[in-house]
Amino acid sequence: MADMRSLPVPDGLEGERVDAALARLFGLSRSRAAEIIAAGDVLLDGGTVAKSDRVHGGAWLEVTLPPPPTAPAPVAEPIPGMAVLYEDDDIVVVDKPTGVAAHPTTGWNGPTVLGGLLGAGHTVATSGAAERQGIVHRLDANTTGAMVVAKSEVAYSRLKRAFKERTVDKRYQALVQGHPDPFRGTIDAPIDRHPSGDGRFAVVAGGKPSVTHYDTVEAYRAATLLDIDLETGRTHQIRVHMSAVRHPCAGDLAYGADPTLAARLGLRRQWLHAARLGFEHPTTGERVEFVSPYPDDLARALEIIQAES
């Protein structure tokens, strides 16, 4: 069912393009906002608009938002290479390979952690939307490493709360281009969808607060291996923040990485790995920690960097 919205344009959006204003107000991509405008479903002070028109603070905006697309159901099929690091009656911790999303989403037709677990005969919690059952946190499809899924309802609710309250220790390792200065530091910069509407994210004024702590593990001639602690968990956060300080993850062409270096290292994705995951077990209360070794492609790339240094 369509969603009718009527509201004044906030003063903070003064002078913004209509498509950009819609994207900011309703969490849409710029391309999706442009489609709604082209369909005549946006009125500004009672008149239709073009996507490049500018809005003014206090103008009356009327928008008919189409119903959100329905995410597909998970396809239950085992995933070769997705190892189980730990399992009990309440949780299952997997070592997620590259090319696997956490759960089905609109526009993703590839394998998912949820589908892989179901296909291998594991049970998961039934809380949450059908396509996200048991999922309490996510890794990007091409980010590898440790990921926990809830099997029981009590584990689902307690782990969701733990991630929300930031009591989970999520430690990543990233091989980034160049040498961050200082060697240890914090990047505190808000993140939201990239203005291009192409699916990327960016540091954007007025975005969601996002904090990344990093520490140098080893500096090489062309790159630096970082240990990263996420205080917040925004989509693409590490990739966006490292790109914003001009040290993108090696191989991350979407966020400005050098394609020549990526080719030399044999990388077809960002060098980013969820190496450690620690939290209070949702039913025993015991502090547990899981470690994921580097997958083959990241290990090979690191060996090349080390040999060149």
From TrEMBL:
Protein family according to the UniProt entry: Belongs to the pseudouridine synthase RluA family.
Catalytic reactions on record: a uridine in RNA = a pseudouridine in RNA
Family annotation (Gene3D superfamilies): Pseudouridine synthase (3.30.2350.10), RNA-binding S4 domain (3.10.290.10)
All residue ranges annotated as the RNA-binding S4 domain in the record: 16-80
NCBIfam families associated with the record: rluA_subfam (TIGR00005)
Keywords, ordered alphabetically: Isomerase, RNA-binding
Protein name: Pseudouridine synthase
Task performed by this protein: Responsible for synthesis of pseudouridine from uracil.
RNA-binding among keywords: yes
PANTHER family in UniProt: MITOCHONDRIAL RNA PSEUDOURIDINE SYNTHASE, RIBOSOMAL LARGE SUBUNIT PSEUDOURIDINE SYNTHASE D
Pfam families: PseudoU_synth_2, S4
Native source organism of the sequence: Actinomadura vinacea
EC number, UniProt record: 5.4.99.-
Isomerase listed as a keyword: yes
Source species, domain of life: Bacteria
Xref: InterPro entries: PsdUridine_synth_cat_dom_sf, PsdUridine_synth_RluA-like_CS, PsdUridine_synth_RluC/D, PsdUridine_synth_RsuA/RluA, RluA_PseudoU_synthase, S4_RNA-bd, S4_RNA-bd_sf
